[in-house]
């Protein structure tokens, strides 16, 4: 009888010890472990944030003399930090608010693809509607070729749905 009681008491300890090799250790922290964001995606997000916040000092750090900025749909291409910043400042004069809401972000090495929606609130005189405030929601794809060593943008390429923009402008 004593043997039976000892066996019953030892079985849970044996099962627990056997399972210790199978069950991974739980993190000691109360905080849930966050998935690691790849460096290329983190850099792309920082860049897009600087762009939409019109933070020219930060943007200047992202660009070099070799950087290309192209809006393929509009047929506009600008090269070099100085010309890109001049181009952006000129456009942003009319922009009251500007954001990008990504639906998908993925990367292959140093190439990052952002698929989402650009939202603009702009002065109407840019679109031939002086005195009005224009609000636009433009779906698009932005691809960024990154220089991961220098933490810079090699190429920014936009493909935006300007048909959606024209439809929205017609109704405003």
Automatic annotation (TrEMBL):
Occurrences of domain SnoaL-like (ranges) = 44-155
List the SUPFAM superfamilies: NTF2-like (SSF54427)
Q: Which domain of life is it from?
A: Bacteria
Keyword annotations of the record: Signal
Mind telling me which Pfam families this protein's record contains? SnoaL_2
Task: List each coiled-coil range.
Answer: none
Q: Which residues form the signal peptide?
A: 1-17
Protein name per UniProt:
Nuclear transport factor 2 family protein
């Amino acid at each position: 009888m004593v043997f039976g009681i000892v066996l019953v008491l030892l079985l849970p300890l044996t099962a627990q010890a056997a399972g210790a090799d199978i069950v991974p250790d739980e993190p000691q922290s109360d905080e849930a472990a966050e998935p690691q964001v790849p460096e290329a995606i983190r850099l792309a997000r920082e860049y897009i944030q600087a762009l939409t916040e019109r933070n020219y000092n930060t943007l200047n750090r992202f660009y070099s003399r070799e950087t290309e900025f192209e809006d393929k749909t509009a047929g506009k291409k600008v090269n070099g930090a100085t010309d890109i910043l001049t181009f952006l400042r000129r456009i942003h004069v009319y922009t009251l608010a500007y954001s990008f809401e990504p639906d998908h972000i993925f990367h292959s090495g140093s190439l990052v693809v952002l698929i989402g929606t650009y939202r603009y609130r702009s002065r109407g005189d840019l679109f031939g509607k002086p005195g009005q405030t224009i609000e636009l929601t433009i779906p698009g794809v932005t691809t960024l070729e990154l220089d991961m060593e220098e933490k810079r943008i090699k190429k920014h390429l936009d493909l935006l749905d300007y048909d959606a923009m024209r439809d929205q402008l017609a109704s405003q």
